[in-house]
Design goal:
The complex is a heterodimer of chains A (437) and B (271). Chain A has 437 residues and is mainly alpha-helical. Helix content of chain A is 66%, strand content 5%. In chain B, helix 4 packs across helix 5 and helix 5 crosses helix 7. The chains are: A mainly alpha (437), B alpha/beta (271).
Chain lengths: 437, 271
């Protein structure tokens, strides 16, 4: 009928053809523009975040050290010559003195000028104590010899050397003296003070001195927690989803369970922290600050995410595959484990990794169970006190020293790198296991 | 077991279906999906080694009835089945019958080809494997080859058994599904509009295959195409609105139907 009208070119045809093609295209163009603007805003803020974090944080990966010819003088290390009978002597010796002596000799300062010697000693980090002690304890035969050792400079010298300190400020109002700056420049001219790769950022535990503060404990704590979350949340979550999706009768009770799981996913994490505190620490008497408690709390938080993702990917497996398996005489269990689960696996993996990434960045519940602590020693088991990556960022952000600012940003970069690796892993796994039907 | 054979013999002797023994039998079968009743007292005999076609307009209950025959309706929570369906005289809804075993004896081919997203070999080998039909790889290889040959697919796929079954054409996929069903040595094969997703050439191949398969298997096919029912089936049952209107030898149904509704349907006046 309409065809006829168009062909005859009658008046009604014109009315019908006036469907606002231009308006439609204009609307589409506008919509596309909105989309581009939305994405643009997102990218802008992401870039702003990245640029701010990286410009502030990249310097944290290099730390200023001084190359000193250190003489392991037996008179300083073991003045009473008792190290054969008392091994503690080697542990408690005055190692910073060795470094100080070496620097004083190198700068040609009169050892009798106490003020100058003290200023020179103030350029060397107290971290030299552990560094030199470990060398001597590992190999006592170096006592009496002279070795070139790169020892850490203090955070103040580090900041000055990186150009972060405004030297035009009056000397009394900054932490590096003019004398120290002069020495620093002298050493720089000789090439014996330099920025070196800061492996301590990844290895050291907590410290009140920025140059010896690292994320080692936090990284280990986070790894413990991720392993606990993975081991607990993945099997429990997948089992619960399979039961709910494939076996449970569809009735009011399962509806209620579903609503509650979805609610659980939206519960603020701090509430999970309180729950963990009440149940795991107060009631079950687990140790405070331990990664096992953190892992358990994060497991509870991650479960809803994994269950929701797993159920969605189970539901996405075409019903025809189930019919095919059942029609061949497979039992329901065989159907699920031989056909449905393998097809849902990429989705489950993606959901799990996203859940893990979420858990990795979670801070609030960890504060409540005491994982915000000054932990200097590596936790050897999940029962030992530890911190976590995001908590470490929180703690460093609270520190006053200038040098902790760059460390905070450096820690954020490390956390982002972990998250990026996990999310890229999720994409790679999905690509690899994705199948078509 | 004895009772079973006796019942089977009794069925063979019964004069109900022109000399052929009755393989499956439905008596007053009713199905409810929740509140809605889908089938109203269907009584139908499925003769052995013949093709029985179930025809009728959409929503008439023919697929529902087919799915009762291997209890696929069990997978739908709200479905309730009444009446009695027997296989070789034994009630398949009896508590003593294991549904897994039943489905091995009454196989099913679906409307849309649904090979597993695995290799061709794995598709066919899956059934024998879960039912423990073979003791070693050689026997399994034998079953796979034999099933693919019976499904007239062997020559096309023998060089690529380990490629994915989903990479085949639609018609090949459907024959792969038939091969997969045959591999568990069923007695009855149910086909739910097996050719509706296939082109005419693939359809012809599947129809040809059905004709051969009926030597060894009892086949029940649901189809929308009356030409197909006429071509492949020996007996035809016409369903309408959940009721079995008429049932008999295909020739009779298509040439001189007793019921007005059947006549209207096969002459294309509705449906």
């Amino acid at each position: 009928m309409s065809d006829a009208a168009i062909f005859t070119g009658a008046a009604p045809a014109k009315a019908r053809r006036d469907i606002g093609i231009k308006r439609r295209y204009a609307a589409e163009q506008r919509f596309r523009l909105y989309g581009i603007i939305a994405i643009g805003i997102g990218i802008f803020f992401l870039l702003a975040l990245m640029v701010s974090v990286f410009t502030k944080g990249y310097t944290a990966f290099w730390q200023t050290s001084i190359d000193l010819p250190i003489t392991f003088d037996a008179a300083v290390i073991d003045p009473d010559n008792e190290r054969a009978s008392d091994p503690n002597v080697l542990l408690t010796a005055n190692y910073p003195r060795l470094a100080q002596n070496a620097l004083v000799a190198k700068l040609g300062i009169d050892p009798g000028n106490r003020a100058l010697v003290k200023q020179a000693g103030g350029m060397i980090s107290a971290g030299s104590r552990t560094q030199l002690r470990d060398m001597v304890v590992a190999d006592p035969s170096i006592i009496g010899t002279t070795r070139n050792v790169w020892v850490l400079a203090t955070a103040d010298v580090d900041s000055a050397f990186k150009g972060q300190v405004d030297l035009s400020v009056d000397e009394a109002r900054r932490k590096v003296s003019d004398q120290q700056v002069e020495w620093m420049n002298k050493l720089a001219g000789e090439g014996t003070i330099a920025q070196r790769w800061n492996s301590g950022l990844f290895l050291f535990g907590a410290s009140s001195r920025p140059e010896t503060a690292g994320m080692g404990v936090a990284i280990i704590g986070s790894i413990y927690m991720m392993v606990i979350v993975l081991v607990l949340a993945l099997p429990i979550g997948v089992a619960a989803s399979i039961y709910l999706e494939e076996f449970a009768p569809k009735n009011r009770f399962t509806d209620l369970v579903e609503v509650n799981i979805n609610n659980l996913a939206a519960v603020p994490s701090i509430v999970f922290g309180l729950l963990g505190l009440a149940v795991f620490i107060n009631f079950l008497d687990f140790p405070r600050s331990a990664s096992i408690v953190g892992g358990l709390v994060l497991t509870l938080m991650t479960l809803p995410t994994i269950i929701i993702a797993t159920r969605a990917s189970l539901r996405a497996v075409p019903p025809s595959i189930r019919s095919a398996a059942l029609g061949l005489g497979a039992s329901k269990m065989q159907m699920v484990f031989h056909h449905v689960l393998p097809l849902a696996a990429p989705g489950i993996l993606t959901g799990t990794i996203i859940g893990l990434a979420q858990a990795l960045g979670e801070t609030a519940p960890l504060l409540l169970i005491g994982m915000v602590a000054f932990v200097a020693d590596y936790p050897t088991t999940p029962l030992d006190p530890a911190t976590a990556l995001p908590v470490q960022i929180y703690m460093w952000a609270n520190e006053a020293e200038r040098a902790f600012v760059e460390r905070t940003s450096g820690a954020i970069i490390i956390l982002l790198a972990f998250l990026a690796v996990m999310n890229i892993g999720a994409i790679v796994l999905r690509r690899r296991f994705e199948r078509r039907w | 077991m004895n009772m079973l054979t006796e019942a089977a013999i009794e069925n063979r002797l019964s004069p109900m279906s022109n000399e052929r023994a009755v393989k499956m039998q439905g008596r007053d079968v009713t199905v409810h999906y929740g509140e809605k009743q889908a089938l109203f007292g269907i009584s139908l005999d499925i003769p052995e080694n013949q093709v029985t076609a179930l025809i009728g307009p959409s929503g008439c209950g023919k697929s529902t009835f087919l799915r009762c025959l291997n209890r696929m309706n069990d997978t739908i929570d709200v479905a309730r089945i009444g009446g009695k369906i027997t296989l070789d005289g034994q009630d398949i809804y009896d508590k003593a019958i294991d549904v897994v075993e039943l489905r091995a004896r009454v196989g099913m081919v679906f409307q849309k080809p649904n090979p597993f997203p695995k290799s061709i070999y794995e598709n066919v080998a899956y059934g024998p494997r879960i039912h423990g039909l073979t003791r070693n790889k050689t026997e399994l290889d034998g079953i796979v080859e034999e099933s693919l040959k019976k499904a007239a697919l062997w020559n096309e796929v023998k060089d690529r058994l380990h490629e994915s079954g989903t990479g085949l054409s639609g018609g090949q996929q459907q024959r792969l599904c038939i091969a997969r069903t045959i591999a568990v040595s069923p007695e009855v094969i149910l086909m739910d509009e097996p050719c509706s997703a296939l082109d005419p050439i693939a359809t012809a191949k599947v129809e040809e295959l059905m004709d051969e398969l009926k030597q060894n298997y009892t086949i029940v096919i649901v189809t929308h195409s009356m030409q197909q029912a006429a071509r492949v089936s020996q007996r035809t049952a016409f369903f309408h609105l959940g009721v079995l209107v008429e049932e008999g030898p295909t020739d009779t149904i298509f040439t001189s139907p007793h019921d007005k509704r059947t006549q209207d349907y096969i002459t294309g006046r509705f449906g």
